[in-house]
Design goal:
The chain is built from eleven helices and nine strands. The protein is about 35% helix and about 20% strand. With about 280 residues, the protein is an alpha/beta fold. The strands form two sheets. It has a six-stranded mixed β-sheet with strand order 5-6-7-3-8-9, with helices on both faces. A three-stranded antiparallel β-sheet has the order 2-1-4. The protein starts with a strand and ends in a 9-residue tail after the last helix. Helix 7 packs parallel to helix 8.
Length: about 280
Amino acid sequence: MTPLLELDQVSYAYHSRNGETYALSDISFQVQQGEFIAIVGPSGCGKSTLLSLISGLLVPESGSVLFGRTLQERKTKEGKKTFPETDSGEKLCSRIGYMLQRDHLFEWRTIYENVVLGLEIQHRLNEDAKMRVDKMLMDYGLYRFRSAKPSELSGGMRQRAALIRTLALDPELLLLDEPFSALDFQTRLSVCDDVAQILRREKKTAILVTHDLSEAVSMADRIIVLTRRPARIRTILEMKFEQKNLTPLERRNAPEFKDYFNVLWRELNSRDLGERS
């Protein structure tokens, strides 16, 4: 089965007048259609840089980022790989959704006007798109607030609106860069649960960057653990719960949750946090 996304020996460094700062080194992994991946690692190790490379905002210095059709085409080619090999940002922009720490809703627009903003920009706000947006607003409890301004909604509802705005473009892959970090703990748990169930219902593939180990264990199918900068993959943990299709809140109460959390804690608090031999 051809994966949706493949990173093959990806490396990246930031350049300045004072020299190079190496961010990522030899990163390789695959993401299957419908999979939820979490990425954790020490602060400043390059997690957000990795999302920028996947989205096409940055181009790897070496290695390849292959996505969707590009990956399928590469799998059918014969001969030697060429590096770097990645889609242009223009091609990827409509196929990858990016959800950031802040909701970035515009206060002068209603919730509905915020949700359809991306469709307007891409000239895709047709009748089918409007029907899809209305259905998501109804399904996810925001339809009666469609004429409200963002300041009239709670933090959790604003994040839900931001997610619908992203999903309205029907992306193949969703990148989540600590989207719950600005919320208080109780709201964070609730929104995390909502988002996971929405993505499962919409059958979306997602990659989450987070500092919250509990969040990673409760949401992900697999967790990629990065070392300190320049980040390499230290290990990849697969989350296997005896009971299937648990929500994030239900996972937190499952007996396996504590064991996975402790494994992650040990990996991230290893003295050297070096590359696993």
